[in-house]
Amino acid sequence: xxxxxxxxxxxxxxxxxxxxxxxxxxxxxxxxxxxxxxxxxxxxxxxxxxxxxxxxxxxxxxxxxxxxxxxxxxxxxxxxxxxxxxxxxxxxxxxxxxxxxxxxxxxxxxxxxxxxxxxxxxxxxxxxxxxxxxxxxxxxxxxxxxxxxxxxxxxxxxxxxxxxxxxxxxxxxxxxxxxxxxxxxxxxxxxxxxxxxxxxxxxxxxxxxxxxxxxxxxxxxxxxxxxxxxxxxxxxxxxxxxxxxxxxxxxxxxxxxxxxxxxxxxxxxxxxxxxxxxxxxxxxxxxx
Length: 288
Description:
Layout: H1 3-7, H2 11-22, H3 28-49, H4 61-73, H5 85-104, H6 130-138, H7 144-159, H8 163-167, E1 174-176, E2 182-187, E3 194-198, H9 201-209, H10 214-219, H11 228-241, H12 250-264, H13 269-278
Antiparallel strand pairs: 1-2, 2-3
């Protein structure tokens, strides 16, 4: 690329190119995360440079440090919390991937992240105890949206599936195992890995509960799915109402399945470790 052409490449044009080439390759949730990172970049550029966009040559080591400082000190005006260290690192990780695209395309001469190291804090996600799970299982809300969000969270606790995987489930994903019981068979959206999940009685009850729900019927899904962002907002309120001092997330639900739920249903700890590590549920490989 000629020098004059290189000058026309800006940081936001780079992000638009990345979105164009990765749409259809990356999961919708991942693309949405890039959109959030670009939103922070726009805010930073306006504050730091008093411009709407900057030439790609401005993406250097100092830019990274200044952007990092901006993210750590950014105070949201909405209901969201300030970014944690890992939240800041995830945005910088996405910027690093954008920079890699620019280097590969010869739009940048060198990698601005070559001397920068991402530093994530180790997070222990934990899991719900049997008592906490019982509190949620027995809770009934008169407001339908709260109840459906809670039920979707509980379905994750009973199956170990992530939000994105649950949101795409349909009747076609239910099959009969040689044990005569219902199983879910699908592929993880994130890894495309085959997943075989034994449907525990409580999971079956939740599927039956929403069988005729208008939203589920219209979307041909097993549950009335809402956006992940709205889901997380409702889950925080549910935790407060139920006096559970945990951050209710689908990561927590999946870990609850891997520990509290499977072990209480008689699955040996060795098998839990193996099937959660590979997410193939090899302990039941021949049943479906």
